[in-house]
Amino acid sequence: MTAGHCSEGVRASAVKVRAGTATRASGGKQVGFSSIKIHSSYTVKDDIPYNDIAIWKLSSTISEISGLTTETGTRVVSALRTATVSVISRANCHSQYGTLSISDAMWCAGVTAGGEYACSGDSGGPIVNSSGTLLGVVSWGNGCARKGNAGVYTRASSFVDWINTIRLRLPFRDYDG
C-alpha cells in the first residue's frame, strides 16, 4: 500500500522494491511488481490529493522484510529512519489546513514543537502504531516537520472495502494494463 500520487504514470514492470535491509542501495532482496492499482476516486484539487491510496502487487513474495531529512535538502539518506509522532486532533488539523482540505479519509500526526514527521520523499510510506498495525500512508503536509504543521496521512481504515475488492479482481484504474 502506498500513496496514489506516488503511483500515477508508474509502470509496474519498471520498478522494484528492496526489502530486508535498511540501506537504500544494497543488501536485502529486490523484487519487481506485477500491477499497480490506484483508487478510482483518487484526485488532486488545489494541490491536495484526495483518496490518495494505491496498491502495488509484488511479482513474487518476500520472505524477509527514503527520504530527505530536511525541507530544503537535496541529499537522500542511505539508511531508513523512523519518526515518533502523535495523532493531532481533527479540530487542530482543520485549523492548520482548513476544514475543506482535510477529508474524512485523512488524519494528521506530528510533533507540536516541530522537528519530526514525514518529509519530502516519504510519500506513500507507512504510519503504524506501537503494535505494528498499519494506520495509513504518508500523503502531504506543509513543509517538513515545521512547528505547528502536522503531516497529513491517508486513513487506511477508510479503504478496507476497496483493498478487499482488489483481492476479488474487480476493475480499478490500472497503469500497467
Automatic annotation (TrEMBL):
SMART domains noted in UniProt: Tryp_SPc
Top-level taxon of origin: Eukaryota
GO biological process: proteolysis
Keyword Disulfide bond assigned: yes
Keyword Cell membrane found: no
UniProt keyword list: Disulfide bond
Pfam families in the record: Trypsin
SUPFAM superfamilies: Trypsin-like serine proteases
GO molecular function: serine-type endopeptidase activity
Domain called Peptidase S1: residue spans: 1-168
Protein name: Peptidase S1 domain-containing protein
Taxonomic lineage of the native organism: Eukaryota, Fungi, Dikarya, Ascomycota, Pezizomycotina
